[in-house]
Amino acid sequence: MGYHCIHEPKCIRLRRDEFFCEDKVLIRRFMVNMQQEKQVYTRVYYTMECMEETEEDPYNYLSLILSTNFSVPFYRYSNNSTDGELRVTDCSIPSSNLSVLFGGESAGFFGRRDIILEILTVDCKDEETHFSMNHWSGLETLKKLYIICPKLSKVDNDLFSGVSKRLEHLQFTDTEIQYLPKRFFSNMEVMETLDLRRNKLRSFRSSYLRSMWNLKKLYLSENEIDSLDDDIFFQTKQLTHLKLESNSLTALPTSVCSLRNLQNLNAGYNRISFIPKDCLRSLPSLFSIYLNGNRLFTFGLASESILPNYNNELSSFETLPNSSTTLEQSRNLKNTWIGGRGVWDLLLDNNSLSSLPDEAFYGMVKLKVLKISSNKISHFPENIFSRNKNLYHLLASNNLFTHIPARLLKNNTRLRTLDLSHNLIETLHEDFFSNSIKLCHIDISDNRIHHLPDKIFKPFKSQKPECLEFVLDMSRNRLKDVPELSIPELTHLDLSGNHLTLFKTEILLQPSRLQELNLSHNLLHTIENSDGPVEIKYPFGKLEVIDLSSNQLTELPTFGFKLATLKHLNVSSNNFKEPLSITMSLCHAYFHSLETLDMSRSRLKGMVLRYDYITVEKLKHMDLSHNFIDLEDCIEAVDARRLVWGCVSPLYSFTALELLPILTASVIFSLLLPLLFSPSTVPSSAVVKIPFPLNP
Length: 696
Prior knowledge:
Layout: E1 3-4, E2 11-15, E3 18-21, E4 25-36, E5 39-50, H1 58-66, E6 82-89, E7 115-123, E8 144-148, E9 169-173, E10 193-195, E11 217-219, E12 241-243, E13 264-266, H2 277-281, E14 288-290, H3 323-331, E15 345-347, E16 369-371, E17 393-395, E18 417-419, E19 441-443, E20 471-473, E21 492-494, E22 502-504, E23 516-518, E24 526-528, H4 534-537, E25 545-547, E26 568-570, H5 582-588, E27 596-598, E28 621-623, E29 635-639, E30 644-648, E31 659-661, H6 665-677, E32 687-689
Parallel strand pairs: 5-6, 6-7, 7-8, 8-9, 9-10, 10-11, 11-12, 12-13, 13-14, 14-15, 15-16, 16-17, 17-18, 18-19, 19-20, 20-21, 21-23, 22-24, 23-25, 25-26, 26-27, 27-28, 31-32
Antiparallel strand pairs: 1-2, 2-3, 3-4, 4-5, 29-30
């Protein structure tokens, strides 16, 4: 269990390097051997976690354990020092008499005198907190400081004056701080990463970064900043990552245009209405641009200048321009592309873009991900993606497209994802996919498509098996027929919410990897089976889900082929007219793996018993609720093994049944009566769900 420490009876040593004080404070230490540039050194980790309020300051216990002597391996290398990391979680700040816990003669050393404290994490408990410079006094060797304090609302001007000169990484997040003192970040010449995410900052001035010549990463996300000084980044030439998302910015500072080392710019979810056009295109290292969730209306159209060097802008207008006017203007624009040659990711979704110039992405030859969803774009220039041969993902949902050019994707041979959902598209050209046979995800749902050419998917017939899943979503359109599905790699097919009245199972002969088929919410009255040879009629080895709910079927379909892997079948909300022979229908379709069967709300009038020795052994959940079923029909039978006589119900074959939602009183009686005579026919784990009688 452990033993009490000699110098502090309130602490128990549980293991060699684990201590528990007052049953409320857990302190651990462990060592890890590290290697960097062929030099081996040891890092010592200390953690202190406070679980409840303590009688004494928990830092008293930490101080005691830090001073405990223990062996540290010594390596005969040029750099044989040992550095340390301390993490404090859910503890209040040290009391005043312990504010120099690591200070004095130690000069940044703690525990053994040769352990240098380089990393300190303070994760405050959820209570009022205030730090002063004394708390960091003596931490001259500190390189990384992490502070997460939800109730911290104010900081002193000289808070980091004792550690700022060597600090390389500062994380100051999740606080209530709204304003920072003017000289809060002074003398931080070696700072590389400044993380101020998830605070309540209202402003961030250029003076804060004046001494950070070496800053590489600046994170200001999830604050309440409404503006940044135009010259804020003139002193941070080494900046590579800039995250400004989820603030209230109305414009990017023009000094962004001077950051030639910038690789990642995230200014999503602000209120930005224009971007200096030539600015981002001129940054040679930029490969990721996130401008989603802003207020951009158009780009490429001339507007007032911001600075003499950047007088072409993405502009904002108070009202949407006339669509024909903007289309004509966009066609006449040259060199209007927003990013440079090295950009991989461009996110412009959730704006109010109304048009795209012909050369919007012309120079972005390395572009891989383009998101323009949730805008108001109504036209795709035919050659807009002609030079984006590396495009992998194109997402253009939630726009106003009515027509898609036949040769829009002629040069996009590497495209994997295409999302054109939630538009006003009526059809696609037969050659639309002719050069995009590497697609694995096609979403054209929620459009106005009434017909697709029968051979539109023919190019995929020669597709190599590179997709883990191939998803084709054509749901919620106006389709009355289904084109030939010559997609051998197809795994998920969604045709729900269309106007289909007839479905021929021969359509499914080519996609042999199909796992899920959704035909719900159509007008289907017939599933027409294939009449081909037996070996062709039974092609499926992976289909697990079929949804035929909310159609007009009058009988349970058999599909005409073996479905040995089918696990879930939904035929609810149909119109079955005759009493249903469930067991025989299921066995005829070879549903050996079926686990759930939903036939609720299908106007079933009865279940006719067809006794045979074939059982659906894995069926666990069958929903027969909201029907007109009467289960009075049964057959006298004898269990020869147990010498038990009884009446076998139509549920006899479903030996694994666990849940059976039913409805009427007659059904209840018909189920319970056979159980009295032949309990062995129903498993002990079965649950019969019996709601109050309702009118179906």
